[in-house]
Amino acid sequence: MDVTLTLSGRQHKALRNHLFPGDGKEAVALLLCGRRAGLRHKLLAHEVFLIPHDCCQREQDRLTWPTEVVVPALERAAKRDLSVVKIHSHPGGFSRFSEADDEADSKLFPSVFGWVDHEFPHASTVMLPDGRMFGRAFFADGTTKELTLISIVGDDLHFWRAAQLDRGVPEFARRHAQAFGERTYALLSNLSVAVIGCSGTGSPVVEQLGRLGVGKLVLVDPDPIEDKNLNRIINSTKADVGRLKVDVLAEAVTAMGTGTKVTTVPLNLNHPDAVKAVADCDVVFGCMDGHEGRRTLNRLVAFYLLPYFDVGIRLDADGVGGVDQVCGSVHYLQPDGSSLLSRGVISNTQADAEAMKRTAPATYEDLRRQKYIKGVQEDRPAVISVNMFFASLAINEFLARMHPYRLDDNGEFDWITISLTQFNINSDFREAEPCKAFSRFTGRGDVMPLLDMPALDEEGRP
Asked: What would the pLDDT profile of 319-359 be if each residue is shown by its tens digit?
């Protein structure tokens, strides 16, 4: 079993400030983690538990602390079925576990397994002065294994691998490497990226990710191609009408020969299997028009600590050639930050209406006729040139987070809105407060029902 660890940028910053107070001595903290269980077992940071400096005996190359200090954290982990990750600093930059670390961990983790009544792995990690981390997982049978990946989802995206898979740079990617370096190409080739919505904006996003050589694509969309889609779905033809969008795009990516593997999920995102498939990924692109799917996705990325790039387009036209507005936005959303709800991009009212239309269409129509609810907008105008423009903007935003190249820090940008009618470009700062609706779920991972949503209860499904 491979074991990975993911933290948000805010969690990583709080830990770094605590672990390196400036006195050159080691410090320690605990992470209480949810999980995504599977062949690749993800530990997902839910809570940060800082162990006070004055409770510890701290030196440059070792530290000890009294057991009773961590009892409240262990009790909380046991109550909420969380895994425990110890994290301490090496102020001198020593990039391996020391003999003192081995001795301390050999005493700590049998006690952790005694407190927390599950057999899922726990972990021990080290942070270096530049913020990089490495670690090892501890299993119930006493064995250990190096963490294969530690991810930080913040203003920048960091992916620190224990053993980078070095396949060299193939000829198709040589010019990518010339621009962003071989390391960035290697990172891309090891990432799993989910794209939810495979139509107007989704298909050009998929096209570009495939040609960048990402390791794996997970395509989520329940719909078949229709005649009306041929004006904007990349690689679709008249012969594809009636076929699933995800299948057509998967064939196109495979035919590129870039080595990208594709998994198709022909389901609505509000299905347990779709949620689990996305939760297994490293990065998410949302390419949906509506409110319900985007609300679910925003909730999902909080539970599973995923970076989320949302692409939205507004094209207002009178249907006979008159154009009032052509604009679009790319939002970058961190799992414990502001959300599409708190930014005012989507609303619970419209999301609830869309959910009712999908699950109870007769009731929806009755309430709409009686004007108890506002109807869901359908058949929006769509133009491929606009879709491709904003899809490319989203991909470049992703690359900027992977390989910061802007003159300003990535923290200066949360979303970019461009009006093509007025040709205005606006960007904005992150809201000061995390989204109250979703941030409390940060790193909770697998729960029953999934995402703590009764509609995703798997026990009642066939």
From this structure: 656 667 788 899 999 999 999 999 999 999 999 888 888 88
**CATH number for the domain formed by residue range(s) 171-460:** 3.40.50.720
User: Is domain 2-161 in CATH 3.40.140.10, yes or no?
Assistant: yes
Q: What is the pLDDT of residues 208-244, one digit of tens each?
A: 999 999 999 999 999 999 999 998 999 999 999 999 9
Contact 322, 419 (CB under 8 A): no
Q: How far is CA 235 from CA 1, 126, 245, 409, in A?
A: 37, 46, 10, 36
Tell me how far apart the 2 most distant CA atoms of the chain are, in Å.
76
Radius of gyration of the chain from its Cα atoms, rounded to whole angstroms: 23
Which H/E stretch holds residue 419?
Answer: strand 415-419
Of 320, 317, 321, 286, nearest to 301 (Cα)?
286
> DSSP strand E in 279-360: where?
283-286, 308-317, 323-333
Q: Is the pLDDT assigned to residue 400 strictly greater than 80? A: yes
Residues in Cβ contact with 183 at an 8 Å cutoff, skipping those fewer than 6 apart: none
Percent of the chain with pLDDT over 90: 72
- Please, what is the angle between helix 245-256 and helix 202-212, to 10°? 20
